[in-house]
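Hi W.,

Here's what went into the run:
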Amino acid sequence: MIYNKKIMSDLLKGKTAVITGAGRGIGQATAILFAKEGAKLLLCDLDREPLGETVSKVKSLGANVIGLTCNVTKQDDCTNVMKTAAEKLGNGSIDILANIAGITHDKVIHKMSLEDWNFILGVNLTGTFNCVFAASPYMRDAAKKEEEKSGKTQTRSIINISSTSGTTGNAGQINYAASKAGIIGLTKTVAKEWARFNVTCNAVAPGVIETRLTQTRKPGEDFGIPEEQKQMITMLQKQTGLNRDLGQPTDVAKVVLFFASDLASYVTGQVLTVAGGMIGSI
Ligand SMILES: NC(=O)c1ccc[n+]([C@@H]2O[C@H](COP(=O)([O-])OP(=O)(O)OC[C@H]3O[C@@H](n4cnc5c(N)ncnc54)[C@H](O)[C@@H]3O)[C@@H](O)[C@H]2O)c1
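Here's what came out:
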């Protein structure tokens, strides 16, 4: 992962951003990129140790950062995260919410237990709802107060992570695909309800990106991709995809940054696929 390369400068200067799932993969890459662009960061993750690593990396870049462990399935945790971000970093307001926490438990339909179905819907879809709901006082209501006071509101942005599984379906991922398709409905609804408050809400739909979720599946682990399937995806990407290489977390983080910045201030309710040219092929 490239930590030192500067893409642009100060795109998020002074903005307060909350990133869920910041301990690993796409969330960590987004935290590093946001820090380089001048954001103040509230980073949260279920797992304390990887979260601590990201916080250290971001601190070494000079960013103002707070790390909090949080389970996005628990409303109280989400409330605590948003309240802390607004009160300790944002003067009562949150500018950017990147809902990146997510997980897989893949099985074909006839082997999918109700427990696995509910678990994935709970983390990916309900977790995203919980975070948007908990951020509402500091995004929607904060904008309403600004409007009443001065007749103007600043732009705020929410970025959710869907998946090509959600946009096109994927064999072996009925729970995950449904959760990621649900995120698209959620995104478009927030976009419609909150456009009048200048809160944008967009989704990024990555294809296969090299992270813990797409590593070759080890025995006894619930996430990862079976070795043969991973080889097939890698071969397809090498033959026909952009860069001839699998996507990296920074490839997604750059698009999250676009939606978080003023570059996308007149864009809402959109789903942008980030799949290196592998559109509908896997
Ligand atoms: N890697 C891919 O190919 C790919 C493709 C499409 C979408 N996505 C999505 O991108 C997002 C990031 O995934 P990644 O690939 O970086 O995976 P990752 O496993 O590297 O990172 C996900 C992070 O989310 C955290 N998390 C999981 N459950 C949580 C919970 N209940 N509360 C708080 N944090 C929780 C994990 O601890 C982990 O640090 C996910 O939403 C995933 O579904 C990934």
